[in-house]
C-alpha cells in the first residue's frame, strides 16, 4: 500500500510541477494582477497549502481505490483524464489567457472528480472523504474562474 501512495504522490505532484512550468509568473503576473477577481479569492499562500493537502489526500484515495474497486482500468482511465485536465488548466488560463477555455477545463475536472466520488462511494465508503478536499477546492476554483470570465 505504501508504494502505491508514493507512486500517486509522485504522479500528482508532477502534474502540479508540469502545469506550473507553463504558467510563467502565474498569480503574480501583471495580467492576473490586473484582473477583477472575486471578493472570495483567497490569499496566494492558500493555493499552495490547498494543493499540497489535496494531492496528499488524493494520493491516499487513489492508493485505496486501486485496491478497493472492481474495475481498476476504468478508475485509472479517469485518473489519467483528471491528470491531463489538471495539467492543462494552468497554461491555458495563465499562459494563454484563455479564460473561457480555462473555465471549460476546470468545469470538466470538477465534474470528473465529483463523478469519482459518487461512482466509487459504494466500494470505498468513508474512504471517499479523502477526495472531498479536491472537489471542494475545484468548486471554489471554478467559481473564481467564472467570476474572472464574467467581470473582465
What labels describe this entry?
elongated; 152 residues; 78% helix; mainly alpha; single chain; Ferritin
Characterization of the model:
The chain is mainly α and 152 residues long. It has one domain: TspO/MBR protein (Ferritin, Up-down Bundle). The protein contains 7 helices and no strands. Helix 1 (2-21) packs antiparallel against helix 3 and helix 5 (99-119) runs antiparallel to helix 7 (132-151). The longest helix is centred in the middle third of the chain and has 25 residues, at 44-68. The mean pLDDT is 93.
Q: What percent of residues are in strands?
A: under 5%
Shape annotation: elongated
What ranges have pLDDT less than 50 throughout 5 or more consecutive residues?
A: none
Q: Helix fraction? A: over 70%
CATH fold name? Ferritin
The rounded distance between the terminal residues' Cα atoms is 47 Å
Report Rg.
16 Å
The description of the largest β-sheet is: none
Per DSSP E runs of 2 or more residues, the count of β-strands stands at 0
User: Count of helical segments?
Assistant: 7
Amino acid at each position: 500500500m505504501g508504494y502505491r501512495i508514493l507512486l500517486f504522490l509522485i504522479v500528482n505532484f508532477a502534474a502540479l510541477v508540469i502545469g506550473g512550468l507553463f504558467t510563467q509568473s502565474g498569480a503574480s503576473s501583471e495580467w492576473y494582477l490586473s484582473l477583477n477577481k472575486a471578493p472570495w479569492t483567497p490569499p496566494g499562500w492558500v493555493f499552495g497549502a490547498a494543493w499540497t493537502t489535496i494531492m496528499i489526500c488524493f494520493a491516499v484515495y487513489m492508493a485505496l481505490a486501486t485496491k478497493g474497486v472492481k474495475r481498476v482500468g476504468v478508475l485509472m482511465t479517469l485518473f489519467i483524464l483528471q491528470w491531463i485536465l489538471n495539467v492543462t488548466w494552468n497554461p491555458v488560463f495563465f499562459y494563454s489567457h484563455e479564460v473561457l477555455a480555462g473555465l471549460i477545463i476546470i468545469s470538466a475536472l470538477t465534474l470528473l472528480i465529483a463523478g469519482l466520488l459518487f461512482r466509487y462511494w459504494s466500494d470505498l465508503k468513508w474512504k471517499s472523504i479523502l477526495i472531498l478536499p479536491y472537489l471542494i477546492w475545484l468548486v471554489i476554483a471554478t467559481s473564481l474562474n467564472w467570476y474572472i470570465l464574467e467581470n473582465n
